[in-house]
Amino acid sequence: MHDWHRIFDQNLLVPPHTQRARQPLKESTAFQCVLKWLDGPLIKQGVLEVLSEVGCHLRVSLFDVTYRHFFGRTWKSSARPVEPLCRQPPRIVFSEPFYFHTSLNHPNVVAVVEVVTEGRRRDGTLQTLSCGFGILRIFSNNPESPSSAPQDKRLRLYHGSPRALLHPLLQDPIEQNKHMTLIETCSLQYTLKPHPLLEPVFHLLPENLLVSGLQQIPGLLPAHGESGDALRKPRLQKSLTWYLDDLFFTLYPSLEKFEEELLELVISDHFREAGSPLDSGVLEILERRLCVGVHNGLGFVQRPQVVVLVPELEVALTHSASFSRKIGASSKARSGNHTLVLRSRLQLPEMVCHPAFTIVFQLEYVFNSPSGADGNAASVTSLSNLACMHMVRWAVWNPVLEASSGRVMLPLQGGIQPNPSHCLVYKVPPASMSSEEVKQVESGTVQFQYSLSPEGHPDTPVEHAIRPKAEQRPSRKPPTSPSSLPAPPPRGLTTPQDSPVGPGLSLSQLAASPQSPAQCRAAEASSKPPGSPTLSLAPGEFPLEGRISHLEADLSQTALVAGTSTAEQLQELPFTPVHAPSIVGAWTRSSGGKPSRASLALLRSAGFPEILDANKQPAEAVNPTDPVKFSPQKEESDCLQSNEIVLQFLAFSRVSQDDQAAPWPQTVYFTFQFYRFPPETTPRLQLVELDEAGKTSSASLPHLLVLIHKDGSFDAGSPGFQLKYLVDPGFLRPGEQRWFARYLAMQTLQIDIWDGDSLLLIGSAAVQMKHLLRQGRPAVQVSHELEVVATEHEQDTMVVSGDVTRFGCVKPINVHTVVKGRLHLTLANVGHLCERRVRSPSSLPPSRSRVISNDGATGFSGGGLLTPGAPRLKNVVQAQKLADVDSELAALLFSPPWPGTPRPQGAGREGDAVRRRKLERMRAVHLRERGAEPGRCGLGALAQQSIRAQHARDLQLIAAYRERTKAESIANALSLAITTRHTIRATLGAAEFFEFALRNPDNTQHTVTIAIDSAELSLILDGREWRYFKELAGLHTPLEEDMFHPRGSLTPQLFLRPREMVHIPFKFQTFSAGPRASAQASAELRFEKDMGAGSPPKSSMMPTKHAKVLFRAGSGKPLAVLCLTVELQPHVVDQVFRFYHPELTFLKKAIRLLPWHTLPGAPVGMPGEDPPVYVRCSDPNVICETQNMGPGEPRDVFLKVASGPSPEIKDFFVTIYADRWLATPVQTWQVHLHSLQRVDVSCVTGQRTCLALVLRGMQTVRKVKAFSSHPQELTTDPKGVFVLPPHGVQDLHVGVRPRRAGSRFVHLNLVDVDAHQLVASWLVCLSCRPPLISKAFEITLPAGGGKGANKRITYTNPYPSPRAYRLHSDHPRLLQFKEDAFQVGGGETYTIGLRFASRQEAGEEEILIYINDHEDKNEETFCVKVIYQ
User: Fold this and answer.
1) What is the 3-state secondary structure (H, E, C) of 514-549?
2) Disulfide-capable partner of 789 in 24, 304, 590, 794 (CB 3.0 to 4.6 Å)?
């Protein structure tokens, strides 16, 4: 027993951070780390002079950089003596290994190595000093690490103590932090590698425990040889099976008194924590449980077995007389109802003959607990009670190794002393008045019979024996379970943060209230009758989070079918997100149809421009309801290969809505993206009402769209707005014509409609483009009347079925779609002849376009070193002036020499030809003034002398320059001879595959190293991936398996035979969205109002990337160079999602995919089973993943995005793949995340609630106005336009009067009215509760637009003084008041006049009448039920 206590006390572990413990469990990985030697003068000479017997040792601790948290236990090496600084450089040799295993596979989990010096002072006391520390990275960002080959590494050391890592200024990456100071010339040599041989002994070593190979681990045999390292090749000791029978607990003074006091203390503890009294009748004991497990001092060897104890009196009452006599005969010493009895045999097959192996007994009580703060249970069913669990006693027994059977009585322990489960235990009685003999038993005792033989205790009934098939070694796969009662799985890694998992309880169902949502599981009632023997198991372990964490599991009987192993992780249950998933295509399902004949006639009379074909004939009109027969061959054989796509925005009609709708906007604008053209934002368009609007329909109010000029005026005589996109073979890549036709046939164009004044989203419309396929016709046009649909998020007032107290049963925010209006749109496709002939796709052999060869780069084209290496048709070089071919030399020749620098002999003062010409003219003028003729002799001699001096200077400059640049020029010329240049065009998410044909030019073999300078260009190392891309590209070049020699993080190598040529596969793939899409295409985009039909196309170039691949031989000589130019092309957006979310928070969203065969872009002819789905995101800071929930289940794409400050808009793209190699995306989504300031308002329906928002001024004065998405419910003060001073602070007063109960979102924008810019934006979250209704009325009215009715009701002022009141209604369109405000004297009665309007539809409507006081607080509420017949 002493050995167990010593090992237990010395190996207490600090658990990982709670946030890290909540993350999904991973498989634990074992490591061996050898600290070899310490180099450098780390220990100062002054320390050696002050201290004597100076030694040095190393300390290693695990550290979580993300949460700045040390965990596990610090390992300490043996001390090494420090010699005087005699050798240079000094070295201290350790060569000591330590081992550990951890499941926290994350790059931010590191090991911190500290160098500590210890010595004795002059007074004899021990002094320790920290000399520095280093950060040892265990895991890297590479998911395959650390499986690379082990090698010696050097660990850099820093000044200071590891406690500095707890400072908040030290953010990751720590090594690059400016506060970290590196110790020069000091380092630690070490080796870190995985150690799979440690996996069979995981059950003996807790996770995150650093142990030395020289440390004796209970349960392991000593090491062979003289090394003494028992963990290098660990060997297990032989295990024995112990049987425990006739086990019972005795509690004093009696079981009834003990449990009565326990209940009273739990109730008082709840009162202190919750602040509310708890009825003692509400709380009761559900079960008394016993956990029995084998412990080796470091942790539980296997998972503790869990059984149920019952009072002895219940055993006597529920069993036959013969069984009662057996119980009584075996426990004659028991007096009264003191005991708890176990009615089954325990079998422990994991015992080992070792002094540190003990059996631990833990007595736990399970209570039911009230779910609400008021103490009332809120469960839907009677069985779904919440449960809480407390450990009350525990005991440890160290078996006598020599004995084979016998009887044992152990004292129970409790209180605050450490226990094997590391949780709080119920108090023990005060021992101040007790003797030593009484102290041993007053906390209770446990007695049992033990034996090494299965027949050691004949009194145990066979039917109550439980024989679990426990495994000593952890298994990676779960074993097959027997058909009988499942055996308890072996306990795996038991760390201080672990807690034993509870079973399916036999007396009640437990629905634990978890602290971590990721561990919440619904509990189901056990099917066993009360009183039957129970030893059921939960499927896994959870980190310790509170006292009931071990109940957070699936307790159903289905969880007990398959056994588990010690190394098995938790099986994740299908998780249903709280929010309703957004459906792909749900926002694009706005039903569009054919406009009515009245609408067509009305719009045609408005004077919209007519769409003509190339022959100036009207385009053929197509019915949008007719089916489309798509023939790709007919599209490719069309002589009119140039397509001009025309979009005409004609009018916007408002549908008949209720009185709660927002007012009709004055101006609108549209945003959309067609194909891979830049995302388009139209100018603001004025809504002009037609004169004949009243003649069409009462349900449709059409307004023409008119372009607003820059001065704010508009011309109603030229309605509509037109956009044109020219898609011709010059814009399309080879073979893209077929993809464009497929895009028109299958995709829908999503258009967002915005309020031009408030900048609020009105709604979205979607139109199918399949009718734009001309199919050989010269031009087609189709007119649509599209529904503009808005999504509103409202919270249901009804509670969902199930237990609302458990996790997941919250009131979800439902998504409702509301039709806001109808958009009148005309689409057209006009065919044109191509202006220039281009090669057909068939003229470009795909095999040749995918293979790049360096054979053409093996010759030198000739010329000088300073001539450019451009390709020539012939090996002929024409002489050129050196100053014309080298700009740097030209600058030297035509620049004057610096003052004070030595000049060439005979050089003139100036080198500029212009200045020399001026000097010659001045000399000629002087000669003429002297009367002498400017003869040839004098002037010619001066000029020739100056020219010769200048030429001499130039020649010396040229010679010096050529000598200096000779080596570099020769190297560049030789590099050009082996350089191959190639250009590819890539789009977002699509993998561009090509092969480079590399030839060995030498007669010797080479090991070629391939170096790539771009992270987006990569080698294809997997043969399966290479074969897939070959089949996709139709390439028939040779394929080799295991072609490359991977070297971990180093560049791969390739073996080349003499004169051999191999094809090396490459893949370029970018997920970076690049710049804003305003520069995303190089195609024609013309505004009809701004330019004519013959205007030249605008060109906006996409960014170009460059990548370089260097093929270098083993000697370092380059063999070939591939210079890749990547021209990024715009990409197609299939779906646009727009989310509004509070600022500086995380948006967690699930987007549900449609069935695979209906998903646009999915391959045709797929088998019945849906292929796996893979997702990638363009923003690396966005978490994007998908999970397969099983066959037939829908697929969801989960997004987790951090929103920025308001009013920032974050845009990113999500690509969906159907192949594991991510070759071509089948869907590309664009996601807009609007960050808004969140304001939570709790209010009462019909009552005004006021709040103030703070406005902060910008850099300049701005004229702003506040706009609300629900102006009938949310008003602002100031109401109109007001001035926001610069750098000032101003309050915006907001009044909220909701008209219906529930929770919903209201958008509030502050807009600059001059620049039409968004200044600030808020997301107002309303939580509205209904008022108390004091009176109810009922009235019957005719439906169908008949006459209304006038009614009167009375209201009596309950106050003795006169009061003023205001009247409001939640349906002002159906009910109007004769007077909206009235005043009545104290105690008097006032008659309120009501005017009820009729409506078209029959049915019932409940109308609320709010009577508010002068402060707009609700006094009374009347309910009128109107029946429309």
Assistant:
1) CCCHHHCCCCCCCCCCCCCCCCCCCCCCEECCCCCH
2) 590
Q: Which residues pair with 595 in a beta bridge?
A: none
> Helix, strand, or coil here: 1285?
coil
Euclidean distance between CA atoms 464 and 749, whole angstroms = 70
Report residue 1303: phi and psi, to 5°. -115, 135
Question: What is d(CA 1355, CA 1335) in angstroms, rounded to the nearest whole number?
Answer: 11
Quote the radius of gyration of the chain (alpha carbons, Å): 43
Q: CA 461 to CA 1014: how far, in whole Å?
A: 74
- The C-alpha atoms of residue 1378 and residue 1137 are separated, in whole angstroms, by 47
pTM above 0.70, yes or no: no
Contact predicate 231/421, CB 8 Å:
no
User: Are 331 and 452 contacting, i.e. CB atoms less than 8 angstroms apart?
Assistant: no
Name 373's Cβ contacts closer than 8 Å, sequence gap at least 6.
274, 276
Tell me the average pLDDT across 109-125. 88
Q: What single DSSP character describes residue 24?
A: P
- Indicate the DSSP class of residue 567: T
Cis peptide before 146, with omega less than 30 degrees from 0?
Answer: yes
Tell me if the bond preceding 1298 is cis, omega within 30° of 0: no
| Collapsed DSSP state (helix, strand, coil) of residue 787 | strand
28-56 pLDDT, tens digit per residue, is 899 999 999 888 877 776 676 777 778 88
What string of DSSP letters covers 1383-1398?
EE-TT-EEEEEEEEPP
Residue pointed to by tokens 């450990």: 391
Question: How far apart are alpha carbons 1019 and 1062 in whole angstroms?
Answer: 14
Question: Is 670:661 a contact under the CB 8 Å cutoff?
Answer: no
In order, the DSSP letters of 967-1024 are HHHHHHHHHHHTEEEEEEEE-TT--EEEEEEEE--SSS-EEEEEEES-TTEEE---HH
Alpha helices in 690-822 (DSSP H): 736-746
**1071 vs 1075: CA distance, rounded Å:** 12
- CA angle, residues 94, 95, 99, in degrees to nearest 5: 115
Asked if residue 815 lies in contact with residue 796, where contact means CB atoms within 8 angstroms, the answer is no
Rounded (to 5) percent helix, strand, coil in the chain: 15, 35, 45
Q: Are 214 and 220 in contact (CB under 8 A)?
A: no
Closest alpha carbon to 834 in 645, 641, 644 = 641
Give the model confidence (pLDDT) of 230-253 as tens digits. 888 888 888 888 899 989 999 888
Does the CA dihedral 915-916-919-920 come out positive or negative?
A: negative
Entry field: residues in the chain: 1429
Strand 979-986 relative to strand 1118-1128, pairing? parallel
User: Burial, 628: exposed, middle or buried (Cβ in 10 Å; 0-12, 13-18, 19+)?
Assistant: middle
Q: What is the DSSP string of 1327-1353?
A: EEEPPPP-EEEEEEE--SS---EEEEE
CB-based contact 743:749 (threshold 8 Å): no
pLDDT-derived band at 1081, boundaries 50, 70, 90:
very low
The torsion angles phi and psi of 1158, rounded to 5 degrees, stand at: -100, 0
pLDDT, residue 30, reads 92
Task: For the beta carbon of residue 896, count every other beta carbon within 10 angstroms.
Answer: 11
Contacting residues for 913 by C-beta, under 8 A, at least 6 apart: 894
Sign of CA dihedral 282, 285, 286, 291: positive
Name the DSSP class of 839.
Answer: -
Using DSSP's 3-state secondary structure scheme, residue 421 falls into coil
How big is the CA angle at 51 (ends 45 and 57), to the nearest 5 degrees? 80
Q: What's the CA gap between 178 and 169, in Å, rounded?
A: 10
Contact 16, 71 (CB under 8 A): yes
Strand (E) or helix (H) holding 1061: strand 1061-1068
Strand partners, 1317: 1312
Terminal-residue alpha carbon distance, the chain: 88
Token digits of residue 481: 């379970």
* The pair of three-digit structure tokens given for residue 834, joined into one six-digit string: 């191509």
